[in-house]
Amino acid sequence: MNETVVTSIGQSDAGDRIRRHADILSAQLQNMRASMYPPEAKKKLRTFLTHEVSKLSSIPESTLKLLSKEGRGPVPDRQENNHRVYTLAQINELRAMMAEQRPSEVLRYLPHRRPGEHLQILAIANFKGGSAKTTTALHLTHYLALQGYRVLAVDLDPQASLSAMFGAQPEIDIGPNETINAALRYDEHRRPIREVIRKTYFDGVDLIPGNLEVMEYEHDTPRMLATRQSGAGGVFFERLRNVLLEVEGEYDIVVLDTPLPSVISRSARSMQPPA
Ligand SMILES: Nc1ncnc2c1ncn2[C@@H]1O[C@H](COP(=O)(O)OP(=O)(O)OP(=O)(O)O)[C@@H](O)[C@H]1O
Ligand SMILES: [Mg+2]
Q1: CATH C-level class of 120-269
Q2: Are 165 and 138 in contact (CB under 8 A)?
Q3: Exposed, middle or buried: residue 201 (CB in 10 Å: 0-12, 13-18, 19+)?
Q4: Tens-of-pLDDT digits for all 275 residues of the chain?
Q5: In CATH terms, are 48-109 and 120-269 the same topology?
C-alpha cells in the first residue's frame, strides 16, 4: 500500500485493510494448494519406474526384478499396465539393503560420507535479487537427494520461498519460533536445532524453514555485537556453523538458501566481534 493511501485513510484503517488483504491472499494460496495437491493439499513426489530406479541407484534392472519376484526388499506398487513403481523412500531402502549385502561396493549404492569426511555446507548466494538462488538451492537439493545423499535444506530468507517450494506455506504451516532464527537467537527462547528441523515430502531432504522471523537475526546480531553480549555460540555465520554441527552426523550435505545481503547485515559484518 502506498504512502498516500496510508495517510488519507489513517494508519489503523490501513493496518486493518492490509491484514484483511493478507488473510484473503493467504486463504487463496491455501485454496490453490488444495486444488493442486488433492486430497491432502500436500506436495507428493512421483514414483519411479524400474529403469529409472536402476539409473538412480546403480542396481541392475534384472536384480530389481529378481528382488521383487522373490519378495525381498520393499514391495513396489504396480501401475495399471503392471509396471513396477517405487517411491524415493523405497529406492533408499534398496540402496541401504544393497550396501549391507555388498560392503565392498557400499559407495556405489549408498553415497553417504565415510568416517573422517566433512559435512559439506553449500551456500547459494548472489548479490543480485531474482537471480535463481532459491531455484538453484531447490533443484540442487532435489538432485542430491535423488543421488542418495542425506540433505538438510536451510531457508535463511525471510521471504521463505524455499520453504514454500517444499510445501510449507509461511503464514500457515510455520508457527512462531519454528524457523532457523529459533536455533540462532540470542535470548532465552533459543531452541535446539533438532527441534526446528522438519521432514519434507522428498525422502532424504529435511528442512529448516524460514519466515519473517529470520529478519530478527539480522537486527539482533549487530545489537549483540555493539553491546558485546553475543555470549557463547558466536555471531553470524559462525553461530550458524556451530548449530549445524549439532546435527552434522545425520547429513552429508547442507544447502543454504540465502537472502540478498541487507544493508544492516553488510554494515554489521564489517564490525569487529568483541575481543
Ligand atoms: N532457469 C530458469 N529459467 C526461467 N526462469 C527461471 C529460471 N530459474 C529461475 N527462474 C525464475 O526466476 C524467478 C526468480 O528465481 P528465484 O526465486 O530462484 O530467484 P532468487 O535469486 O532466489 O530471488 P530472491 O532474490 O527474491 O531470493 C522465479 O520466478 C523463478 O521461477
Ligand atoms: Mg530466493
Answers
A1: alpha beta
A2: yes
A3: middle
A4: 444 445 555 667 888 999 899 889 888 888 887 787 776 767 899 999 999 999 999 999 999 999 999 999 999 999 999 999 999 999 999 999 999 998 888 888 998 998 889 999 999 999 888 999 999 999 999 999 999 999 999 999 999 999 999 999 888 889 999 999 999 999 999 999 999 999 999 999 999 999 999 999 888 888 888 877 656 778 778 899 999 999 999 999 999 999 987 644 554 454 444 44
A5: no
Give distance in angstroms: CA of 136 to centre of ligand 1. Answer: 8
**Whether the predicted model's global pTM rises above the 0.70 cut:** yes
**How remote is the CA of residue 18 from the centroid of ligand 1, in Å?**
26
State the ligand closest to the CA atom of 138: 1
CATH class of the domain at 48-109? mainly alpha
128, 129, 130, 132: CA torsion to nearest 10: 50
In degrees, rounded to 5, the angle at the alpha carbon of residue 56 between the alpha carbons of residues 247 and 88 is 60
CB 209 within 8 A of CB 160: yes
Domain ranges across the chain: 3-36, 48-109, 120-269
- Name the residue with the closest Cα to ligand 1, atom 2: 132
**Which amino acids bring their CB within 6 angstroms of ligand 1?**
129-135, 157, 159, 161, 260
Q: State in Å: Cα 23 to ligand 1 middle.
A: 25
Residue at grid coordinates 550435505: 253
Mutate to test the pocket of ligand 1, among 127, 128, 134, 214 (most ligand atoms within 8 A of CB): 134
DSSP class of 105: G
Contact 246, 126 (CB under 8 A): no
